[in-house]
Design a protein that fits this description.
CATH class of chain B: Mainly Alpha
Number of strands of chain B: 2
CATH superfamily of chain B: Cytochrome c oxidase, subunit III, four-helix bundle
Number of helices of chain A: 3
CATH topology of chain B: Four Helix Bundle (Hemerythrin (Met), subunit A)
Radius of gyration of chain B: 23 Å
Shape of chain A: elongated
Strand content of chain A: under 5%
Number of domains of chain A: 2
Largest interface: A-B, 59 and 60 residues
Oligomer: heterodimer
Number of domains of chain B: 1
Number of strands of chain A: 0
Distance between the termini of chain B: 37 Å
Structural class of chain B: mainly alpha
Order of helices and strands of chain B: HHHHEEHHH
Distance between the termini of chain A: 76 Å
Helix content of chain B: 55-70%
Order of helices and strands of chain A: HHH
Largest sheet of chain B: 2 strands, antiparallel
Largest sheet of chain A: none
Strand content of chain B: under 5%
Radius of gyration of chain A: 23 Å
Structural class of chain A: mainly alpha
Number of helices of chain B: 7
Strand order of the largest sheet of chain B: 1-2
CATH architecture of chain B: Up-down Bundle
């Protein structure tokens, strides 16, 4: 092999137990919210459609917040980076609202 | 990593945006991964928003949930479609299998973040261990999805009956036993596009594992590649959280 570079001296640091504990706690929260989603899916009857949908959306946002904030570390990044990612997503939320409204409107027009 | 020691203060009279410093305090690779993920989020949003549009333009099932039958006339209730579990043929276990898949993907996200943590400490053995667990989680998820697709395509024993009396089983892009044709089309496109992301993620994870084992990152002096691929892997998990809610639960 032409590659002759020596492996430099590596200094392995001991595990950061506080950080690892925190990561497992986040994992626990994510698992709990998923279990709660199942509880909602089977215990709130389908008649309460809006309540079901909004609870699911709320829980999804909680899960997304933990994944992006803690696992992807975005919460600890510089504010400019944080908002560069978050602000465009606000437009996406608006797009979702607008298009679901559009769909409902298409449905109503087809009833005529 | 917002390491305060690395934050450079610009000279007086100059803004951080005038050059010479990194205003977002992130490496080029990490920043580009973030912006790629943002654009990828737009793509997935487009798919899920279109799903919302088409679904709300279709009639919903209005009757008693217990008496639900598949029909081309209305959009199906997802938990009535996804109620099968491997090795338990004929059992009705709504959402159990997809819940297991969600759990597997979240766990592989946890092992990935532990690999990133080990990388910060230059602990090669720990990175190897956690990367292997992450790859295993990814492969398990893909296998579950393969089963899920097979079941969806083959269909149930009963199938469903069209108004003219013909029976149909399973699903393709033209017709499906579960509901309007668009339902199966969205299932294939959304879970397929996500599954392809998981597949690419497994390949990238394997690449990182290979480079770790061969000592590439030790020679490089840092494990930032684990962090960058980690961002991608968490994103794949994040998308699944949204697919799970909007496709399977709502």
């Amino acid at each position: 092999m032409a590659y002759t570079e020596e492996t430099p001296q590596i200094k392995v640091l001991p595990p950061d137990t506080a950080k690892i504990k925190k990561l497992w706690r986040v994992a626990g929260i994510l698992a709990l919210v998923t279990i709660a989603e199942f509880a909602v899916a089977f215990n709130i009857p389908h008649e309460y459609k809006d309540l079901r949908i909004w609870t699911f959306i709320l829980m999804t946002i909680v899960k997304a917040g933990y994944i992006v904030g803690e696992f992807m570390h975005l919460r600890y990044e510089v504010k400019v980076l944080f908002w560069s990612i978050l602000i465009p997503m606000i437009f996406v939320v608006w797009m979702l609202v607008a298009f679901v409204y559009e769909g409902i409107s298409i449905f109503e027009l087809r009833q005529w | 990593m917002a390491n305060p020691a690395q934050v450079t203060v610009p000279a007086p009279g100059r803004s951080v945006w005038d050059g010479g410093v990194s205003p977002m305090n992130a490496s080029y690779g990490k920043l580009m991964m973030w912006f790629f993920l943002l654009s990828d989020a737009f793509t997935f949003s487009a798919l899920l928003i279109t799903y919302g549009l088409v679904r709300s333009a279709h009639p919903a099932y209005e009757g008693d949930v217990d008496k639900f039958v598949f029909s081309q006339e209305y959009w199906p209730i997802p938990e009535k479609v996804f109620d099968a579990v491997p090795f338990f043929h004929g059992w009705e276990a709504p959402l159990v299998f997809v819940g297991l898949m969600t759990f597997i993907l979240i766990m592989s996200s946890v092992t990935m973040v532990l690999a990133v943590e080990a990388g910060h400490r230059m602990d090669r053995k720990a990175v190897e261990k956690w990367m292997l667990w992450t790859i295993l989680g990814g492969i398990t998820f893909l296998s579950c999805q393969a089963w899920e697709w097979t079941h969806f395509i083959i269909g149930t024993d009963a199938g469903s009956t069209l108004p003219d009396g013909t029976k149909i089983f399973g699903a393709n892009l033209r017709i499906n036993q579960y509901g309007p044709p668009d339902f199966a089309a969205f299932f294939f496109f959304i879970t397929g596009f996500h599954g392809f992301h998981v597949f690419s993620g497994v390949l990238l994870n394997f690449l990182v594992y290979y480079n770790t084992v061969t000592g590439v990152y030790d020679r490089r002096g840092h494990y930032e590649m684990v962090e960058k691929v980690g961002l991608y892997w968490h994103f794949v998990d994040l998308v699944w959280v949204f697919v799970f809610t909007f496709f399977y639960l709502v």
